[in-house]
Predict the structure.
Amino acid sequence: MDAVLRDVYRGILDGDRESVIEGVKSALESKLSAESILKEGMMTAMAEVGRLFEKGEYFVPELLVAARAMQGGLDILKPLLVAEDVEPVGKVVIGTVKGDLHDIGKNLVGMMMQGAGFEVNDLGTDVEPAKFVEAVKSSGARLVAMSALLTTTMANMPATIEAFKQAGIRGEVKILVGGAPVTDQYARQIGADGYASDASQAARLALSLVA
Ligand code: B1M
């Protein structure tokens, strides 16, 4: 790994937001692409944080500071991942499902969708099914993107799809799901319209769903 990326990686593992911000700026100055900084420096670090948590070497506070440090780096990369001043190709309502507080993957998906030309209405985390429905009704969005990182909260994806059925507008929206425990098979089983394994794929799929 490039030395400057190693600083970004280390900064996330140490939960050192300032060093991640400085590392990302230096990496950009040394002409590394936003994509390689994100994938090689930041996402590999977050995967390692997860591994250390599983092994019992990291605990929730370490996860929190690592996430805060990663978000600091993402804020710097955002303008490079997102196209400015383009005519929206469509509107998307995005959120992490009820009971789930993980937002880094969802934020990345939102950024990539914005980069692909979507107007993104981000409802945040722990989003109740009814809130997704209300947001679609008030914004006129035709695409809904749901993220879940916990096996226990995945079940709130079909609950949200059911809320759209109950509201009588299931046929008016395309629903895209993703997040670490979600699979293509699960997406089909719950009646979603699409599944993506990462943020770039989610943006491509979103474009094809509104085409
Ligand atoms: Co938590 N956590 N966490 N956590 N956390 C995981 C998910 C876990 C796998 C860690 C582990 O055990 N190895 C585990 C889940 C186990 C399971 O359910 N099978 C876990 C657990 C157990 C928990 C708690 C229960 C811990 C506790 O309290 N004892 C708790 C739950 C809180 C809650 O949500 N109610 C908890 C809390 C937290 C923090 C709040 C401390 C923090 C999140 C902070 C934040 O997000 N602001 C946190 C973190 C940081 C993690 C890990 C370490 C990293 C997640 C992350 O940001 N990854 C994670 C371990 C891991 O993932 N290896 C873990 C980086 C991000 C870029 O990847 O989000 O996967 P990801 O997004 C990817 C794809 O999944 C995809 O695109 C992205 C890449 O391009 N994607 C989509 C995501 N959403 C998509 C939507 C799409 C399409 C693609 O379409 C709409």
About this structure: The radius of gyration is 17 Å. The pocket of CO-5-methoxybenzimidazolylcobamide is lined by residues 43, 46-47, 49-50, 53-54, 60, 63-64, 66-67, 99-106, 108-109, 145-147, 149-151, 176-181, 196, 198-199, 202 (CB under 6 Å).
